[in-house]
Amino acid sequence: MSGHRVLKASILALPIFCASVACALAQQAPASEAAKNLKPVTNEMLRNPPAADWLMWRRTYDGYGYSPLDQINKDNVKNLKPGHERDAAQPAGGGLADVAPHL
Length: 103
Fold this sequence. Notes:
Blueprint lengths: L1 H25 L6 H4 L6 H5 L56
């Protein structure tokens, strides 16, 4: 009799399992256009990164951190404004100290 109950429970649970899997698959986000255009990073790209790419911390293996980009220069840097600010004395999260930044 016990085996019959297990079989009956399994048969009844199968549609619920299938519906759960279908819901999980339906919630997966489709690949964005940006992701479709990604190219693998090669060793040569890491040794000599393109000007617009920061493929690693400090941009190059020597850690120089210099940006060859020229959109911000000494003439227009005064026009920059903060994009985000927060009072460091007031921790976020209802008074609990943050251990990681909120993104």
